[in-house]
Each structure stands twice: as C-alpha cells, then as structure tokens.
Amino acid sequence: MNPNDIESVEVLKDASAAAIYGSRAANGVVLITTKRGKSGQAKVSLNSYVGMSEAYKKLDMLNGEEWIDRAVEMINAQWEASGTGRLASQSNAERRKILGLADGTYNTSYMYDDRWLEPGRPGLYLINWQDEAYRKGVIQNYQVAASGATEFVNYYVSGNYLNQQGIVKGLDYKNYTARANVEVKPNKKIAFGLNLAPTYSIGNDPGVEGKDNIMHQIYSMSPVQDHPAGTVNVFDNEKYPWSTSTNDPIAKLNYYIGETKISRLLGTVYGQYNILDNFNFKTTVNLDQTDSRSNRFQPYTVGGTLANRTNNPNQATYGSNSVYRKQTFVNENTLNYHLNFDKHDITALLGQAYNFDKLETSSITSQGGYTNSSITTLNGAVATVASTGATQSVLLSYFGRVQYAYDGKYLLSGSIRRDGSSRFGSNTKWGWFPSLSMGWRLSQESFMKPVTFINELKLRGSYGESGNNNIGDYSSIALLGFYNYSSNGLSVSGQAPSNIINPDLRWEKSRTYDVGLDFGLLGSRITGSFDWYTRKSSDLLLNVPSMLSTGFSSYLDNAGEVKSKGWDLEITSHQVRKADFSWSTSFNISHNSNKVTKLDGEQKEILIPSSFDIQHSLLRIGEPMYSIYVVKQDGILTQADIDAGAALYGSQKAGDPKYVDANGDGVIDANDRVIVGHPNPSYVWGITNNFKYKNFDLSFMFQGQNGGHIYSLLGRALGRTGQGSSDNALGFYRDRWRSEEDPGEGRVGKAYSTFGRIKNTDWLYSSDYWRLRNVTLGYNIKDLKLGSQSKLSLVRLFVTLENFWGKDKYDGGVNPESSNTNLSGSSDYPEAGDYGGLAIPKTVTFGLNVNF
C-alpha cells in the first residue's frame, strides 16, 4: 500500500473493540482508512523523493592479516598434536620432509601457505567481502493524486512508481501502484462505491538471506584468496586450498538470477441503502488476488565450489520456475441502527460474512544440462521435476454489537461473534467470541469541576475473546502422501496416509481483560492513555507426541495454555504552542511477559525441533514461550581449574571453554542445560519530537527495545569454538586465549579448541537496541502564485535521514531484529532467527510535495 494514499491508521488494543472481528483479531487489529475526496474545488498533488541507502552496520570480522595469524596458529597446533617431535617452529620444508611429500606440494591440515609469511603476500588477494558486496543503492519514488467531491460523487485516484536499489549488489525492486476510490450517492437513500488498488512489482533477489545463502557466505568466506573478488568459473580447476570451499559469493550476486514478478488486485464494491434515516443496510464484496511468478537460475559460471571451477553443467547448474495464485473473496452484509433521544444514544449492528481462500501452486525445477549460461529456459536442462498443489478454506461468520451511551458519560458495549472454519474437525468447526466493555467519563461529572487541571478523564474496562485458526487448510482430516517402496527388487511409487486424523481439533482461544485510562491535562496540553491487560490463550494448536503404534511420531491437537500480561503507556505533551513556534513530544512504551501454564496431558515441556541440529529452545510449564535452553559458559578453563577438579566436557584442557555443571554430577553434557533467556523483548518504546517555526518543521524519532535475547545461529557459525581455520571468524577472536600468560579478554578460548559444539551461551546475545529511526526537516511555501489564473496551495521541500545513529549489543550479526530463517524443524513451532541477514539500510532522501 502506498503510504501517500493513507488517511489514518488506528490500532485496536481494547479487547472488546477487537473481539467483533473474531478470529481475524487473533494477532490484533489495525484499521487503515484510505483517502477520499473532499467537497470543494478539485485537488491535485504531486509527491516525489529521491535518495540513497547504504548499510547501517557491517559485521566485525577478522581481516586478511588477522585471519592468517589465526590460521597459522591453528595449523601449528594441529601439526604439534599430530605426532611426537613435531614443533610449531618447523618450516614447511621440514614438515614436507617428515610427511614424505614432493616439493611444491602441501598438506593444508599441517602446512600453511609460504606466501603468508612473505612481505606483501605476493600472488594473494586480501579481500573485505562485505565491502565488495554492499553498495550505495539509489531510491526513487513518484506519485500523483487527484481528488474531489460534489453533492453526488466523491473520488480519489492516484498512481505511484517506486524504484529501489538494494544495499547489496543484485538486490533491486520496482513497484507500480494505482488506486481509485469512488463513491456515488444518486439520492439520500442509496450510496454505492468502488475501491480498486492494483499493484505490480518486480523484485530481484539472487538468494541473499538465510543459512548457506550469499550473505552467510559473505560473512564466513576466507578473506585470503588467490583470485580477486567476483571471479567466475574460468575453466580453472585449482582452488586456494586453505579457503572456504564455497564459490565466490560476489560472482553469485552478479550472475545468479532470482526474479519474482507479482501482480495483485485489491477490489471492493459496496452498496448502502438507507431504509430509514437511522437504519441502513450495507453489502460489501471484496476480492484480493495475487499472481506470482518466480524464475531462478544458477549458471555453471558460478556454480559448484572452488574445488570445481570447470564447466560441469551436469552438477553445477540449477533452474526453477514457480507460479502461484492466491485468491481471497469476502462478502459482508450488515444492518446498522442508530437511535438518539434525550440523553440516550444507542447504536446496533447485525452482520454476516463469508470468506473464501484459495491457493494454487505449480513449480518446475531442474539440475544440470545448461551448457550455455545465456540460455536460462528450462528446456535447456537435462531433466526437470514438476509439482502442483491446491488448497482452499472457508470461514463463515455471524456477528452483532450494541453500544449504549448515557449523557456522554456512561458507556456500555457488547458484541457476539460466531465463526465457523473449514480447517477444524467435523465436530468442532464453530466458535463463539463474545465481548463486553464499559466506560466512565469522569471529567464530565460535577464533582470533577473543581479539579481544573484535568479536562479529560475516562476510565474503561473490557473483556473479549478471539480465536485462532492459523493451521493448514486440511490439518484435521486424513491426507495422503506419496512414498516409494520396494517390490520384487523394484522401486514403486504409492500413496499412504501422511498424518493422523483429528475430528475434535478446535479453535485456539484467547480471553483478554483490559483496564484503561484516557486523560487530558492542562487544557489538553498533556494527553495520553494507559492500558493494563491480562490474556489467557487456551487450546493452543500444537504438535504433540503420539503412540509409536500409530506409525507417526506426532499429531496436531489442542494441547496447551499460555498466560500473558502487560501494559501500554502513551503520552503526548505540547510544551510550546505559539503562532510562530510550537514543540510537542509523543512517548510510548509497552511491557509484556508470558508463561506457559499447561501442555498436553502430563507433559511438562516440549523441546522445539531444530532445522539445523541446534536444538536450543523449549516450551516449559512456568516459563516464557520459546525459552532458550542451553549450557552456560563461564569463561575459559585454566590449569588451576582443572587441577581443582572442574567439571569437563570430554577431554578439555586449559584454554578450552569453561562450562557450568548445573546438575553437579561432575560431567558437562546436555543434562546441564538451563534456561538462560527468551526471545521476546520486555519493553518496546519510542519517542518523537515535533518542532515548527514559521514555515519550517523538524521531527525526529527514537525507538528501541530492551530485555530480549537472540540465540544467533549466524553468530554460532562465525564464532563457535572448534570451527575450522578456512572459515572467517568474528572480530572478537582477536582477543582469544593464546596461553595462560596471554588469556585474552576471557570470551574466546584458544583458536584450535575442538570443544565448542555443545549448545551454550557463547552464541547468546542481547537483543537490546536504540536507534534514531527518522529525522525530517521540511520547509513549506503556501499560496504560491503561478500567474493570474492559478496558484500552488502548498509546496513543501524536505530532507529525511533514517537509521543514521544508534547502538545495539548484537555482534553476532548486523541487525538485532533480523528474522530471515525458520530455526524450528516444524512449521507448528514458528521460530524465526538470524542465519545470515542483511544490515538495515541507512537512508537519506530529498523530497518535494506540491498541492494544486
């Protein structure tokens, strides 16, 4: 959605206000109102900006010289450990003789490159891969809009073009949007309208974020190479033997194809008939259709590994083409009644809604056979594999609401909604979602008149229920899967059940209590609101273990309960309000905590399956959701620790990581895992200041969060004790343990330690940060004449800086908000994390707004 088309945004936090939306309110409700024409002369506006973005932060990695120093240390340690009489001081020539190798040959486990020790590193390239990958990306945006209204017609139309280069080579995005909001009122009884919002976008992403994708390779790639950055496969079957095995990531950014084209149409048609002056019927039909086509291609020029840079189309090439169409059709019909008499005000709503979702997918993939890198069509491949899929679901709803106000002081509202979802079991498709709220405007009471500094004071309370049906379309019924089996020595394909049927699978429900206070002080010089809430989510939709005799390890069931509580505070103050100068400040902060109170049957905890054999989180009764559950690291082992009988992980020695023996059995193993944090921040906050002086305006916003943790798999990949010498390492390896006399800063053990694979707090980071999100300086020129017949009602020039200043504690990645990889091995436990994410963009833009 184009931000220039938005008139207002309202977030419904009140439990009762959100409950009328039933299952749609499971994750909260945001109401976006788009612009409409206003009566009077037609208006035309032009809005544009151009700017440039670059990486706000780069990951601190070892440079080429530091990598060589670490690699030499690790290779020497391996050499010393490989046999008696083998010394780190022995040259490559001596090692070659001991190993019986021919002149000019190397065993890279025990020998280093002679050029590492020569001045200038002849024939080698010391590469900063991040500098090679990141760039300054240009962004352009242009919008034109026209609006107006007469007694019978109201219209708003707009068009927008966005062209954005990513901050990494190969990332680009173009977006074309349009909007038409038209309403016609031929008489006082009838009104009908049409809202259309088509969009078309073209995105290019060669596969940048996520595990083993290009940014992961950028960070981990050896900074010492014998080819420059960007080298493609040039029939050179030699690789730098001490390097990471993956191929050149800059070449991948330059030559991988990852194009996605998306067309989307949001359309709404509605009609309203006023049966009486205070009683009307409204029907609305909505269509949301998305068509996507993705084309991906990996040519042999960048495929394979450094060990195989020759033309090998049967192994090193890859192509795919996938399309999907997603359609959502919604029909909503409502009766609205409003009655006002004496001091009483009553509104009533009765409605029905039908929601139909359909998804169709198809894809073709290929491996090998592209002998010409310029021909990317799939018919150039040796073989292709095709697949198709289709799902659909229906949500049927009935709802009603009554709101009552007496004298504007006493407010009462109640609603009821009944939703039926095709996703649930045959016995439990329907759910009831009631709500009730009350309000008391104390500031209008006579006893508050003497309290002159309070001009607005409202106390409110609410209770509401909402439902969650966020599961697969066919999760409750029996599905068939395709399997291969052996028959008479032949592989035969067949079908068999792929899940356990659950006809009693039902709605997950959340029950929320909310108490709030709205206030205005000193003639509304200070305004704000405070909300305290508690929420109980029951019948959680979770995968639970099943009896092995069923043939399945788990099935989807209603199996848990979570309680959460928190509060929100918003305050706006107007420090200065004068004709030529004003200054206002808005501040908000929220706090939330949760804990698991129930699991399936007698279960006390569920270990979350991992996609990467790094099982590090769990659901445990009495603890927060997705608590991080690992062994604590407590510095670096000394010989004194070992002599004193410290618990060891295997045959650890001085300089290896020191772990906490949590259960006191004298051995470090998985039984010593403890809860060390959770991913959800305890506090999220923001503060905005707005200044106006004559025709100038200035605003700046700070935002941040505190109290959460990141268990970074990217940090693990780059900083774990025991990783090989070929990978690069995080910058804090400069201060590693080298000896008892030179123990470093105590965070990192010896470079050649092999005892860091146990899941431990070495990869645990704080997600705290604060950031100057936005600074905007503008200048307004009003009523600028363009001659005797026309004038510009407003010309505004502005410059905006985004993400130019801030601080975080996450040195295992570039963005504490990164969410690029599903860490869980099960879609039923969605747990996003960082395994090779992009930096956030630091952007400067110059803009112009013109209103006619």
UniProtKB/TrEMBL annotation:
Gene3D superfamilies linked to this entry: TonB-dependent receptor, beta-barrel domain, TonB-dependent receptor, plug domain
Topology within the bilayer: Multi-pass membrane protein
Keywords annotated in UniProt: Cell outer membrane, Membrane, TonB box, Transmembrane, Transmembrane beta strand, Transport
Key word Ribonucleoprotein present: no
Compartments, as annotated in UniProt: Cell outer membrane
Domain TonB-dependent receptor-like beta-barrel: start-end pairs: 236-783
Record bears the keyword Iron: no
Pfam families associated with the record: TonB_dep_Rec_b-barrel
NCBIfam families: OMP_RagA_SusC (TIGR04056), SusC_RagA_signa (TIGR04057)
Entry similarity comment: Belongs to the TonB-dependent receptor family.
Protein name: TonB-linked SusC/RagA family outer membrane protein
Taxonomic classification: Bacteria, Pseudomonadati, Bacteroidota, Sphingobacteriia, Sphingobacteriales
